[in-house]
Amino acid sequence: MHYATIKTCDIANGPGVRTSLFVSGCTHHCKNCFNEVAWDFSYGEPFTKEIRNKIFELSAADYVTGLSLLGGEPMEPENQRELVPFVRNFRALYPNKTVWCYSGYTWEQLTGAEACRCRCESTDAFLSLLDVLVDGEFVQDKYDISLRFRGSSNQRILNVPRSLAAGQPVLWQDKALFSSHSM
Ligand code: SF4
């Protein structure tokens, strides 16, 4: 696997301060893609052991609330196979931090309810390691600047453990938002 960018102190792709990894390779080829260079699976730098360790180090501080995976497309089978052991190690090191993943594939495609090229032997394991999945392709006509943590209104922010338990997509609820409203 290759990656394009690692962002530290990212506050745009999930709650709190996060480490964000932008992996290379994407077969969606959406109209008006904001990141066309990342369609190429060999774009950027190789995702080496040193880079994995660097991400663990960058995420160690208490103020870092978690890891976000973006692309490109983290859920291309080639990328899933490398991300599963990496995320498993991240979770073992930091059980109190969250893992978010952004995918152009939908929940239904990833779970096999709809036949899709994204399903592989690693997909169920990958989903079981996530806290939140932001699903669906970016659709320019549904772009809305007021949306939090997503670009277009067709995309859903899903609570993955609850969705897996329910056998259907369950929306993520921002606890911080609710607690500030109730104050
Ligand atoms: S899923 Fe993202 S990176 Fe891939 S083509 Fe669509 S907008 Fe571009």
Strand proportion: 15-25%
Number of strands: 7
Structure annotation, total helices: 6
Helix-strand pattern: EEEHEHEHHEEHH
Whole-number mean pLDDT:
93
Terminal-residue CA separation: 45 Å
Tertiary shape: globular
Low-pLDDT parts are 178-183
The quaternary structure here is single chain
| Ligand types | iron/sulfur cluster
The biggest sheet amounts to: 7 strands, mixed
The percent of residues in helical segments reads: 25-40%
Structural class: alpha/beta
What radius of gyration results from the CA coordinates? Answer: 16 Å
Main sheet: strand order: 3-1-2-4-5-6-7
What does this protein look like?
- The protein has 183 residues and is an alpha/beta fold.
- The chain has helices at 49-58, 77-93, 107-111, 123-128, 160-166, 175-182; strands at residues 2-10, 17-23, 45-46, 64-70, 98-103, 132-135, 156-159.
- The protein contains 6 helices and 7 strands.
- Mean pLDDT is 93; it is low at 178-183.
- The relative contact order is 0.14.
- The protein binds iron/sulfur cluster (SF4).
- Iron/sulfur cluster (SF4) binds at residues 26, 28-30, 33-35, 38, 71-73, 104, 137-138.
